[in-house]
Design goal:
alpha+beta, 13-stranded antiparallel sheet, two-stranded antiparallel sheet, 5 helices
């Protein structure tokens, strides 16, 4: 039982923990599939400071797992902006305020009653990296809009807004947000830049189900999903997940590079350099010196 009375009900309110896995299936030009464990949390940004209540392994200053405002949706200048202007509020704004500023700049300001939920891996043993994080915004329990922020291993980030026009229902009839949009961001040396992402976001409840697919020339070339089931957000379960998925962040980064080496050296996929097609790398933050020409 995930939410018994008393103290554990408070733990559930502040954070949800998911025993989850990430699946990537490359469909073209050569098939390549892998799955790895990567647990996730769903937490409201305004509750980061409450995560340590009743726990030792999450949310305290010295805990192995933590969430920090600075790890998500930073207020930084855009490199080669295009489309609807993006804004994140002042650099000192808290994460919840940055989310609201971003939505307002996209033409969908949020009422004070809107609830923002972040789905991400926590900072682990001082290291922070998420290939993608998601913000789900609900109003009176109804999914209204969302943000997908994709990170590459060079430290760059790009955010996409999924507004009310993206509201849809999945095959099971559950509400979701779906957006197919130009990518124009360097994520993989084996995928073009003038291609498309398709995001599918669902509110995390008893299950986690988020998807990011990739299209080239209208053809589905890569399917990826982050799925899992909710487990009690307790020290005991966090300890078990640590044993199951040791060195969470380092493992994710290592797997990205190992699979890239396999695709290049074994499957002989063409390799695109980061500096190629710099004009197609747009609306990103924290650009590398290879793009800006500055040290």
């Amino acid at each position: 039982m995930l939410a018994p009375a008393g103290r554990n009900r408070h733990l559930r309110r502040v954070a949800r923990l998911y025993d989850a896995q990430v699946m990537h299936a490359r469909l073209w030009p050569k098939a390549h599939r892998f799955t790895h464990a990567a647990f996730a949390c769903a937490v409201e940004p305004g509750e980061f400071g409450q995560l340590g209540r009743g726990r030792w392994l999450l949310g305290r200053r010295w805990s192995p797992y933590a969430f920090r405002d600075r790890d998500f949706l930073p207020a930084a200048p855009l490199f080669q902006p295009e489309g609807t202007a993006q804004a994140f509020g002042p650099p000192t704004a808290a994460l919840d305020a940055r989310v609201r500023a971003f939505c307002a700049a996209q033409g969908e300001p949020l009422p004070a009653t809107a609830r923002v939920t972040l789905v991400a891996m926590p900072r682990a043993f001082g290291k922070s990296y998420n290939p993608a994080v998601f913000f789900l915004i609900t109003i009176d329990g109804e999914l209204r809009c969302g943000i997908a922020e994709v990170h590459n291993t060079f430290g760059e980030r790009k955010a996409w807004f999924l507004g009310q026009a993206c509201r849809d229902r999945d095959a099971a009839g559950a509400p979701c947000l779906r957006l197919r949009t130009p990518k124009r961001f360097y994520v993989s040396p084996f995928s073009g830049l003038d291609t498309e992402f398709e995001f599918t976001l669902r509110v995390p409840d008893g299950r986690l189900a988020l998807g990011v697919d990739h299209y080239e020339g209208g053809r589905l070339t890569l399917v990826s999903a982050w799925t899992g089931h909710e487990v009690p957000c307790t020290d005991g379960r966090l300890l078990w997940l640590t044993v199951k998925t040791p060195f969470l962040i380092l493992k994710v980064v290592a797997l990205i590079h190992l699979h890239a080496a396999w695709l290049w050296l074994v499957k002989k996929l063409p390799f695109r350099r980061k500096g190629d097609d710099s004009e197609l790398q747009r609306n990103l933050r924290h650009p590398t010196s290879e793009l800006t020409g500055r040290p």
